[in-house]
Design a protein that fits this description.
Length: 105
């Protein structure tokens, strides 16, 4: 009976040592993973730190470009209206005809 108790205790001890060894290995993997993630986070922060300023600069540039495009559209509409009116005038038809001849000639 005494041999059985010692054998069971040894089995429990071996199982506990095995579990302790597995937990210790898992802890090392977690520690390495934590260090890697911390390094990645630092590098990401370094790369993305200026991003808000760059985005705002791009936003301002895009806004200015859109405003310029709107003003050019208005200007284009006005020029088209003027050319349409000139087509109906006798002098305008002659002027447009001369411009076309100069381009083709």
């Amino acid at each position: 009976m005494f041999k059985w108790v010692i054998a069971i205790d040894l089995i429990f001890a071996l199982v506990n040592f095995y579990l302790a060894w597995k937990i210790w290995k898992f802890r090392r993997v977690l520690a390495k993973t934590a260090l890697t993630l911390a390094c990645i986070e630092r590098q990401t922060r370094t790369v993305l730190y200026p991003a808000p300023r760059v985005i705002l600069t791009g936003k301002r540039g895009t806004h200015a470009l859109r405003e310029r495009y709107r003003s050019l559209q208005i200007y284009l509409q006005q020029v088209q209206q003027i050319l349409t009116i000139l087509q109906f005038l006798p002098i305008g038809q002659r002027w447009i005809w001369q411009q076309r001849q100069r381009k083709s000639g």
